Each structure stands twice: as C-alpha cells, then as structure tokens.
C-alpha cells in the first residue's frame, strides 16, 4: 500500500516525457556499483529476474570505475545494462571531508540518479538488497518521489535504499536543491544521500509499505523473513558475501539463495512457471539451450522470439537442437518459425510431426492450412483445416480457414487489359473493420467502379508466384495499398520481410506501372525487424526503384522510410493521405447527416498490449472510467469494436469500475454500415488508426488515444495535435473529458474544422490523382 504525503510547497515542474511521440513512460532501475559491492549487485540482478520474471526494464549502473571482467559479469546477468560513469569529484564541495569512505562515496554517487534525463521513472536499488516479491506496484507509480519511511526514525524521514523517482524530480531544478543542501552541510551524518534528501524533502514524499525496503535490523534474533517482503535490505556494515553478522541467519539464508553460478541461474529462470519477459528469456535461455540442448527449453525461447517477430532467430535456435520425433510441441514451434521465413517445405515436415499429438494437432493443422493457402491451394487448405476441426471443433483458426477456402464463387472479372491489379490485405468479415474498408477506399481514389470488372484482387499474404506475375503483367497497372503494410509480424515471410509475400526476382519482372498508394510504416515503439531487417531493406529499395508512384499515408512514415533508403531515392517518396480520410469526397452521392445521434463512440485496441500500454494499463482503465462517467452526462457512450479483442474495454470497465457500455460489433459490419455508423455519431475517441481516420473522413470530430506513433503522425499532418492524448497521460481522464466537452459544446464549428482539415488532404489527393492518370496513360478506372 502507498500513502501520499502533502506535495512539496514548490513542486518541481514536469518536463516533457522521454518519448514525446506516444508519451509511453521509459522506466529504469539504477544502482551505484563498485568492486567492493559487486557480489551484492550480482545477487540483486539474479533476485530481480527470479522474483519478477516478466519484468525487464533498463538498468543504469552508476560507477566510478569497474574492471572489464566485472563489466562482463554484469552484462551476463541482464540484457539491458547501461553503464554510466559518475563524476568522482562532483561532491567534493559537500563539506564532509570523508569522500574516501566507501559508504559515503556510495551514498553521494547514488544522488547522480537525479541527473538522469532520458527516463520518466527511475527506481533505485541498493547493492545490498535482494528482491523477493512482485514489484508491479512500484512500476505502476506515476507521481512524486516514493520511498519507505525509516524504521527507527519515524514516518517523516525516508530510507533511501529504495526510491521511485518520477520525471519532475529528474530535473536541473531538483538537482540544484540537492547541491544547495549538500554544500551547506546541514544534513544528518548517518547516511549522506539519505540526509540530503530528507533535508530537501522535509518529510514530503509518497510513503511506501515497509515490505519494499524491509531492513535486516527488523529480523534481529534470527527471525524469519516475512512472506510479504518484496525487497530485503541488508543494512549495516556486515554483508552476507563478507561473512554476515550473528543473529540474522534466516535473512542471510535468503540472500544466499541467489548466490548461483550462471548455469544454475539460467536453469532456475527457465524452470519458473508463468510469463517471462522476452529479453530475459532470450538472454538466459540462449546460452542455456546451447549448453544443455534441451528441446523443451529451446521451444520456450523460440516461441518468445516468434512472439517478438524474430522468426529467423527462432528457426536458428530451435533448428540446432535435436528434437525427438515424439516431442510435438518443439516441432510445431519450429514449423511456425520456418514458415515465417518462407522455408515452407521444411515447415511442412515439422508440422506434420506435430500433428501426432492431440494437444498440438489443431494448431499444427491450422499452420499447414495456412501454408497451403499461401501457395494458392484452397482445396488442400480446406482439407487441413477440416482435420484440425476434427480434433478440436472449437479451434478458431481452422474454422476461419475452412470458411475462407470453401464454397468460393470466383468474381466475374472484366477484360484483363482494362483492369488494375490490386495487392492488399483483404480482411474476412469478422476481421478488423478498418482493414476491411481499406481496399475499397483505395479503389475509390482511382475511380467510382471498385468491383471485379475493373479490379483484379491479389491478397498480399499469398505467395506472389509465376502465375500471379503473369496475371499482373496482363493488366494495365499494379496498385499496392493501403494500410500499414510495412510491419514485420502481421504476415511474416522471408521473401520480402513485410506484408506482401513477393520474392525479389518476381518483383523485378513486373513490367506494368507499379503504384504504391497510401501505405504506412506501422512498427510500434520498441518493435524491430530482427535478423529480417536486411531482407526488408532490400525488398523496400527494390520496390521504391520499381515504383512509378510511391505514396505513404503520413509524413512520419515518409521520414521513417527515407531513413532506410539511399539519398537518391528520397524524392520518390511522397505524401498520399489514407483515402479513408477523404471519404466524403470519394463516395459517390455522399450526403452529410442532417442530424447526428447523441452518442460518443470509444474504441480501444489490445493487439500487442505490452507495446501499447507498458505498465500503465491499470492507470489507463481507471482514467477511462473517469472520462466515461463525465461524458455520460452529455451523451450516450458506446464501445465500438473494430475487432473482437476491442470489446475488452467494455468487459474491463464493467468488472473493475462497474461501468456498462453498449458494444457496437463493427467487425461484423459491411463497408457502408461502417461509414454510416461513424458519420451519424457526434464524436469518436479511438485508439486504432482507422478509428480516427475513418470517422474523420466521414466528417466526424475525433480524439485519438495515442498508443502508436501513427496516431500522432496523422494528427500532425492535419495540424491538430490537440486532438490526441497519450494513453499514458497522468491526467488522461480529466483531459479527455475536457477536450471532448469542448468539441461537443461547439459541435458545428468542430465539424466545420474537420471539413476544412479534410479539404487540405483532398488537395494532395487530387494532385496525386493527376500524376497517376499520366502514369496510367490518361486512363481512369
């Protein structure tokens, strides 16, 4: 439990967040380490990983000189270490004259943490601590400077071994206050950093429960460590690695639990139940697998690679392990990795082995069906899906694949010479509503006829083979878009590294105009291409070189893509807004609603939740509850779900906050119903990109819940950044309610503003359309 003291009489100002685009908090742990306390720090790192296996934040190691061997030992225990050398002379002016005393040096140097500027939250841990319990509450703290009150000196003083420091204290102003007190020498002598902080704060700090800094002295007389203890602090001069101290056997036994060799530590981490952080699992699991050759442990590490979009890494690791024929799960995971890098025949062999186990057969058959579908064999895909359903009739992936590949009626297409080929992600009926609308919206930008008479559809996720190449070259051009096709993990393949599964040699042989239209660079903060980066870069360069028109849907994507291209290709990358943002201009016979419903629609997204929310989901949900209650006094608030997972916000608000929201299942809507729903409401508050762009295109005011850079990119393009609020904003609920109220109170003016912003995007679209007509030889669809 935490209790908040009265704020400082002159609280530090809050600087901008470390990530200004999305506002996502950057969190780090920090310790001052030297050779004397190195054994304690190594035990601390092991204890942190074993007690919080799903937590891996950056760890700042403050030091005034460490041996290379010590640096290597530290790096072996944590994948995100940042060594920062402190100024040994900085505290000479602190008037105590005892800087040669190690404890004093250590106390002073931890004050350097307040000079950190690239994190929003820093959690300090003394090197004589071990972590025994969940630190989730500390990671979720967002306000003030938090610490445990001193055990012996009452509630008005803090014990500085554990500090949770928010960004307003990581500032020049607060450091100046520390320096002022330090130079004046008016603080207590017992522990100098502690004395300085207590003098500066004067008891005004967020008080944490003692279990987060449970001092050894409380256990005198060999008392056992309470089960509730989260952090055990070995205060005093006698440390466990130095022989310890009489009367504290139970406590020191807990410390010695973490005195492990690397091999013992890796094995202990891999054996833990429950969720594990990708970075930790890979860092510890990779050497463990190389040492032991364990197929099961290799499966765990490879699955983590796959979840992070690191498919080649998964295939390499698991491919080096000898997997017995009857161990189905490792075969299934290896098959998944191999198909994701387009080694399809090898993948088939592994997945067929996996079908021998009833537990793994449904998923294995679903992947076999996917491989058959990728290769254009609908009959084989349907057969595999049916086999999977025979084992598990409830298996959703098999059910969807069977539906996708049976009872197909090919559309009656017009003459090839009069058609454009269109590479896109064609979404099934219960798929993401935004992706469902996109292909038609792109086609509307080329003309009124969006049907098979004028268009030949090519699903981006199916292998672009010789037959597909021949069909494209029979048409008069190829359109690629729209949507966020430049992302590594939505439809992984080793041919291109992005969503279109096209080998280089076939891309090079396309001999009709190639028009890349309103594509987005959709990587999240912290999402990388791994070993597939070079494959993606090569494919991207070829595509830009080959394209007659290369339009990206926001300037943020333009900047990202230009960074990946040689300078000679930069000018080919141009701005083409997503056509959903100009829907009113594109849809034939569009009429704005005479009257809007008295509703506000809220959308939240849950794919890649860790990348969206970090440790702030509980905060987000509570703030949304505040906003929904306030908005409910003005209009009926409803949840609009672009996909099935989007309904979670309605479930969570009801369970956690007693708020019931009606749910609009937009994933079941056709395109006209999607546009109609968004055109008739008064305001849309959305987290998905197209929960902003589609209503905006229909003339409806929007507020974006920013959890992905693309939301900020779009708002920057329309010069309305105030229409977005980070999901991490400390005061999200109040600010969202206030901004929504402003838009609703002056609704007519807001709608007019939306129309004006849209007109600017339409001018760009019209100018590009003129160029596209020239590229197509003056012909329109």
UniProtKB/TrEMBL annotation:
> What InterPro entries does the database record attribute to this sequence?
Glyco_trans_8 (IPR002495), GNT1/Glycosyltrans_8 (IPR050587), Nucleotide-diphossugar_trans (IPR029044), Polysacch_pyruvyl_Trfase (IPR007345), TPR-like_helical_dom_sf (IPR011990)
Question: Which positions fall inside the Polysaccharide pyruvyl transferase domain?
Answer: 478-706
**What is the name of the protein in this document?**
Glycosyltransferase
């Amino acid at each position: 439990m935490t209790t908040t003291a009265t704020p400082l009489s002159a609280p530090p100002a809050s600087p901008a967040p470390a990530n200004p685009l999305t506002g996502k908090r950057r969190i780090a742990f920090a310790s001052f380490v030297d050779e004397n306390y190195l054994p304690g720090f190594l035990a601390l790192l092991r204890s942190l990983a074993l007690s919080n296996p799903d937590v891996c934040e950056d760890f700042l190691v403050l030091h005034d000189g460490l041996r290379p061997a010590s640096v290597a030992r530290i790096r072996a225990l944590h994948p995100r270490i940042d060594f920062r050398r402190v100024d040994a002379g900085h505290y000479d002016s602190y008037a105590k004259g005892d800087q040669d005393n190690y404890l004093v040096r250590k106390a002073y140097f931890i004050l350097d943490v307040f000079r950190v500027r690239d994190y929003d939250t820093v959690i300090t841990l003394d090197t004589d601590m071990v972590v025994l319990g969940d630190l989730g509450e500390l990671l979720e703290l967002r306000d003030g400077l938090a610490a445990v009150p001193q055990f012996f000196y009452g509630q008005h003083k803090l014990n500085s071994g554990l500090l949770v420091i928010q960004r307003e204290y990581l500032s020049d102003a607060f450091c100046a206050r520390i320096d002022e007190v330090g130079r004046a020498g008016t603080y207590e002598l017992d522990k100098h950093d502690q004395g300085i902080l207590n003098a500066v704060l004067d008891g005004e700090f967020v008080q944490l429960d003692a279990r987060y800094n449970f001092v050894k002295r409380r256990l005198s007389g060999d008392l056992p460590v309470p089960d509730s203890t989260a952090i055990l602090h070995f205060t005093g001069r006698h440390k466990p690695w130095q022989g310890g101290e009489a009367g504290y056997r139970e406590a020191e036994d807990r410390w010695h639990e973490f005195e492990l060799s690397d091999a013992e530590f890796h094995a202990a981490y891999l054996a833990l139940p429950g969720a594990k952080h990708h970075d930790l699992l890979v860092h510890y699991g990779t050497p463990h697998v190389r040492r032991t050759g364990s197929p099961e442990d290799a499966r765990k590490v490879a699955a983590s690679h796959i979840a992070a979009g690191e498919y080649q890494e998964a295939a390499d690791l698991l491919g080096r392990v000898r997997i017995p024929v009857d161990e189905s799960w490792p075969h299934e995971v290896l098959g998944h990795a191999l198909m994701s890098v387009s080694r399809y025949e090898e993948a088939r062999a592994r997945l067929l082995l996996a079908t021998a186990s009833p537990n793994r057969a449904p998923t294995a058959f679903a992947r076999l069906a996917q491989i058959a579908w990728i290769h254009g064999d609908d009959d084989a895909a349907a057969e595999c899906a049916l086999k999977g359903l025979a084992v598990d009739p409830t298996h959703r992936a098999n059910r969807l694949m069977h539906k996708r590949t049976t009872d197909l009626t090919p559309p009656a297409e017009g003459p090839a010479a009069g058609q454009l080929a269109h590479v896109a992600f064609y979404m099934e009926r219960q798929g993401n509503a935004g992706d469902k609308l996109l292909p038609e919206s792109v086609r509307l930008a080329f003309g009124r006829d969006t049907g098979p008479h004028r268009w030949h559809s090519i699903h981006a996720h199916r292998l672009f083979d010789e037959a597909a190449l021949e069909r494209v070259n029979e048409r008069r051009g190829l359109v690629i878009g729209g949507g966020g096709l430049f992302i590594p993990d939505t439809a992984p393949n080793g041919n291109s590294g992005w969503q279109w599964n096209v080998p280089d040699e076939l891309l090079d042989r396309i001999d009709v105009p190639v028009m890349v239209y309103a594509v987005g660079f959709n990587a999240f903060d912290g999402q990388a291409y791994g070993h597939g980066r070079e494959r993606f870069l090569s494919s991207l360069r070829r595509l830009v070189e080959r394209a007659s028109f290369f339009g990206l849907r926001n300037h943020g994507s333009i900047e990202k893509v230009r960074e990946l291209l040689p300078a000679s290709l930069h000018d080919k990358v141009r701005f083409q807004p997503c056509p959903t943002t100009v829907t009113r201009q594109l849809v034939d016979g569009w009429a704005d609603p005479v009257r809007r419903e008295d509703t506000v629609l809220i959308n939240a997204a849950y794919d890649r939740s860790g990348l969206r929310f970090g440790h702030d989901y509980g905060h987000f949900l509570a703030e949304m509850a505040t906003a929904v209650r306030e908005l409910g006094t003005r209009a009926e608030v409803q949840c609009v779900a672009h996909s099935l997972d989007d309904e979670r916000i309605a479930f969570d608000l009801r369970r956690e906050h007693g708020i019931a929201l009606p749910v609009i299942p937009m994933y079941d809507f056709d395109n006209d119903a999607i546009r109609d729903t968004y055109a008739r409401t008064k305001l849309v508050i959305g987290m998905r990109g197209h929960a902003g762009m589609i209503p905006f295109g229909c003339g409806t005011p929007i507020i974006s819940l920013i959890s992905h850079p693309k939301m900020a990119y779009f708002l920057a393009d329309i010069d309305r950044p105030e229409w977005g609020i980070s999901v991490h904003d400390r005061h999200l609920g109040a600010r969202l309610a206030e901004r929504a109220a402003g838009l609703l109170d002056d609704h007519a003016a807001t709608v007019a503003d939306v129309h004006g912003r849209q007109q600017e995007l339409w001018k760009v679209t019209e100018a590009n359309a003129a160029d596209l007509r020239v590229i197509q030889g003056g012909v329109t669809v």
